[in-house]
């Protein structure tokens, strides 16, 4: 029996490897996951939530360059390396975009950046403890590969940090949906009767409510926030898992090996967890991949409506909300870039779901 199982697993893996788009999507998701975990290590703006604002350089095109003056602050933030790596740097310095400067003795004369051909304000700062080279070291040239948003924040950094929410909501939502869906579907399918009728009534009522409306209601009940959205999305996706598991168990419990397990005196819990569920997980895995994509879309919709991740958190849906009116103002990339990110990630999960469906299909 073990040899047969191993050979079927190896065959499924071989079929999956032969699917180009499935393998490509798998590695694409791995890369996005790695980037989302270590987003602050890759982001040019590694401040918390990549929220460093410079209103004087708002809505600049991709590739925009500007000289940036970083004035040190007497306030020192104590932050561990791992805290900074995973949650961003608590930036206490003041960053000022400038157009030109000159250093005289221990004084720095600079002109603040002003767009649209305007002349910026000229200011002077004196440094008592720094020499000329150290003063010049405070000025660097910043390049914004994706440009800046309407608040002057680095769009590339916001995209990288925002990937964390869109990616992890899939994991949390799918985990919650699997825990609830497998339990409810297993109980309904295995015991049947009134228990099945009651659970199916709950499933049908939940399914009859529009998903987005149900998520909004749960979010409002739990409150606005990061984890509340994750839980709300997960609580609306379990019905599909429960229906699939219920149908599979109804078919599987009539098989001879289940009858043999009952004859041997095994309890219901062991029969369900050790004998039925391992043999019906193929369709559950496929629907989980589809739920990943659905969770990302739901979260983006909630953020667009303003009840998802709250500012200053970076979220792809919120970025579209902030900049959708720029589509008709000649700067559509501010909304199109996060939109393309959502589209490609959802497409990757759908493609890997199709590849898993083909690989786990015993008929082929």
From TrEMBL:
CDD domains: TM_PBP2 (cd06261). Belongs to the binding-protein-dependent transport system permease family. SUPFAM superfamilies: MetI-like. This is ABC transporter permease. Pfam families: BPD_transp_1 (PF00528). It is a multi-pass membrane protein. The keyword Transport applies. Keywords: Cell membrane, Membrane, Transmembrane, Transmembrane helix, Transport. Residues 163-353 form the ABC transmembrane type-1 domain. The chain crosses the membrane at residues 20-43, 165-191, 198-220, 226-245, 276-298, 333-356. InterPro entries: BP-dependent_transpt_permease, MetI-like, MetI-like_sf. It is found in: Cell membrane.
